[in-house]
Amino acid sequence: MNVNAILNNVMGTAGAGIDKAVQGARSGGMPSGLLGGAAAGGLAALLLSNKKARKMGGKALTYGGMAAIGGLAYKAWRDHKEDQTRTQPAQRSAHAAAIYQQTAANTPAPPAGSIFDLANQPSTSQGEDMRLVVIRAMISAAKADGHIDADERTRIEGQIKALQIGQDEQQFLIDQLNAPSDPIAIARLSGSLEQATEIYAASALAVDVDTPEERRYLERLADGLHLPEDLRQRLDEETAIR
């Protein structure tokens, strides 16, 4: 399977798909059509609502696509680990959270060759490409609010079939589109705390958390991933879902 072809059509080359989605959201509508992949906005533009696209624009465009997710996850994980070496109150104060959000814009690039460096093609404990896991997580989360109805699903599936990618790649995307929005199934794909951090970061970026269904989805995902509460708080602040 050509993972890069899938990435270019979901995220867009170097984040171009998200970029087009954000531009469409800011102008009052989503890009029309998906023909041409990233040039038409990427699959992200079809899956994300206007609010979600604007939200992703603030973070994911910092590096573009996968590198942004790895960077966000790495920063939250690193800061969580550093806090474990110091005595911290059980609950972080609102002031501390505000400061953290202000500095979150300076998200570092993930260390080259690390588990957070998705360009390095890391695999899960089940041997699955972590980049595909991230895509699965984003698509599952994006569907959590139910905004993709049967007609919209049929339209997206038709446009996936029109993409200039192989049948295996098309089928992967169609399978994810039609799969249940199941946070526990997604959580089972994680093989480490680092991977759990990336999966949650990607999922939180793909939702807007303005519906009970989305909030419940992330709560169940965090539970299934066994994320420490402090780490989840940092990820929530990084992705600005609270």
TrEMBL record:
Keyword terms, alphabetized: Membrane, Transmembrane, Transmembrane helix
Family matches, as InterPro entries: TerB-like, YebE
A Pfam family the protein falls into: DUF533
Membrane spanning stretches: 29-48
Protein name: Tellurite resistance TerB family protein
The organism of origin for this protein: Hwanghaeella grinnelliae
